[in-house]
Target: Ribonuclease P protein component
Amino acid sequence: MYELIKAKRLRKNKEYQFVYRRGKSYVSRLVVLYVLRRSSKQPTRIGFVTGKKIGCAVERNRCRRLMKEVYRLHQYELPSGFDLILIGRSALKHANYIQAEQYIIKLLYIANVIDNKKL
Model:
């Protein structure tokens, strides 16, 4: 029920580059969010990125797992018709789940992806 299936992920480099070029970015202390509005008939897709500035592979994977878990538990609160990219920043490696959840949900609210009623 709460799985992240392939149809709901960005997988190709071309898809990521399109969102980077055409989407709007929102920045917080822990993550950067890119949002691109699509047709409301299409499902919301998401991609997760962590750069080498975060640290070694273990730290990057932990940050990616943290972002995925926040999205996995809140994916049914999001409307359809968006392409999203979450980029972890170096402060994310020191954050716990609750902090990551607060920052990501706040960015989704600022980007008008979710409304205040669903928070």
Summary: Strands lie at 24-27, 31-37, 45-50, 82-88. Residues 7-109 form a domain with the Ribosomal Protein S5; domain 2 fold (CATH 3.30.230.10). The CA atoms of residues 2 and 11 lie 19 Å apart.
